[in-house]
Amino acid sequence: MSSTTTGTEGRGAETPQADGRTPVLEGRKLSKSYGHVRAMVDADFELMPGEVLAVIGDNGAGKSTLVKALSGAVTPDKGELLLDGKPVTFRSPIEARALGIETVYQDLAVAPALDIASNLFLGRELRRSGPLGSLLRMVDARAMRDEAQHQLDALGVRIPDVRQPVESLSGGQRQSVAVARAAAFATKLVIMDEPTAALGVRESGMVLDLIRRISARGLPVMLISHNMPHVFDIADRIHIHRLGSRVAVVSPRTHTMSDAVAIMTGAARPEDVGGRSHYDERAQGRQRARSTDGSDGPPTPADRVNPEGGEGAGSVP
Ligand SMILES: Nc1ncnc2c1ncn2[C@@H]1O[C@H](COP(=O)(O)OP(=O)(O)OP(=O)(O)O)[C@@H](O)[C@H]1O
Predict the structure, then answer these.
(1) How far is the CA of 143 from the centre of ligand 1 (A)?
(2) In the record, what terms sit under GO molecular function (predicted)?
């Protein structure tokens, strides 16, 4: 785990920029609606250098939509993205990747029939000149094998032969290949959406170790997970998402799993549990407004119905 966590000294997690550092990736008031469903509502996000930031939230809280916005798979309707403090827009995952953002999805995005080296370089194959100075550039299988072995060794992924087809690997090994691929190409950060969801205990441990090693290299990792023990084991900070927005950022050093779950489900307000937490002012303002206008407690799913509707209801981007 990285030692670069910010704002977690003392009892609570404070605003990450308190020490003057610029987030590697920042989202400001990101919103995204699918027809009448407001999947993301003024969501803020910060990933600091070298940290492992876990993002937690109930089913449908909008975590995947956030990941998609940060990785270029979805364009937010509103809001701003900043990479190293500079505004960016991603029109596709390819554009996000070109800027050093790699994403690993839960559904093992590997090509099972191809070997490990080919999977590592999928879509980004190393090439060499063709025979007799031909202009055709050929895939350089040997260079890819050497480099793949080097990358896996460097990350401590133990796989005997990179010429093995991925379908011959265990689930944990396959996910390790997907994570190693992301780590090999990411220059800014790695995003992981439920990387251990399909894995057993031992295999999950393998992937968590890999995340630790990636972060120890100085590469920040954003990790979505429903698995609280994993989150509390590995995260420097925990971003809590609820009903489309960030409602709190807490630290495993100041908050218990019960605290985090209480905030996540709306059973408790961020300021009422754990140490002092850095919670989203707007979300807190909304909650206060609700209590003063006759409704009590935190927002409910009904609050997310977009009154303006919008085009493309139910469309899958
Ligand atoms: N392409 C889409 N079309 C319509 N509605 C969508 C689409 N994608 C997400 N939604 C809706 O947006 C809301 C947020 O979904 P999202 O998948 O981001 O949540 P999540 O926190 O990742 O949920 P889970 O933990 O269950 O994966 C949900 O109500 C979901 O049904």
Answers:
(1) 41
(2) ATP binding; ATP hydrolysis activity
